[in-house]
Amino acid sequence: MKESLRLDRYVASVTDYSRSDAKKLIKSGDVAVDGKVLTDPSQAVAADAQLEIDGQFVRQAEHRYFMLHKPQDYVCANRDRRFATVMDLLDEDNLDRLIIAGRLDLDTTGLVLLTDNGQWAHQVMSPRTRCYKRYRVQLEDPVPESAIDRFAKGVFLEQEKRRTLPARMKLLGEREALLEICEGRFHQVKRMFASIGNTVVGLHREAIGKLELDSALGEGEYRSLTEYEVAVVLSGTLE
Questions:
Q1: Same domain for 98 and 173
Q2: What is the dihedral of CA 222, 225, 226, 228, to 10 degrees?
Q3: Domain range spanning residue 22?
Q4: Of 21, 30, 105, 214, which residue is the catalytic one?
């Protein structure tokens, strides 16, 4: 069964018109769907219906997908009163429609994905899909080998009643590690290391699923994902 939505919402989703402006257009008889003029903004139409406004065909908008190399001191939010946001780094239209698929802390750098496809974003963020995110972590104190098994079994974070899901860790040196987690709890990486008495002093996300941060992107730069990259984030088959 095809997805359907209200006509005014559909018009707003594929144009730059607001919902209120879309309603006015519809009521004035300027909107046709599949060749038929419709004047009821609440009428349900197929999400892939052929739309005309004032006699001009409007092509169904395609979903947008971006990867961004987040710098420090930017918050992962659509707007914020105190700090600059990752949206300030994008030169795109309709920024309010973009969803941040996996947020990073203010002082954390690295890969951020943004999209207007809510279903795709949910799959990236949901622990159920086991979409692992890989972080390069700098620590204040040496990390014992025993922490690898502890994280693999899950640890209790302060003021939480359930263990973290299994995490994978590889030690790169006494005070450096690669950590892969498939959850996004509040300050999770920092709190995991705090649970074993250590402090994170540097944190950088290198990958989400099988998608690596493009090494050609400097801090603050972004680009669109290719169709292959959109699919491979969740496929687990990047070669």
A1: yes
A2: 140
A3: 4-58
A4: 105
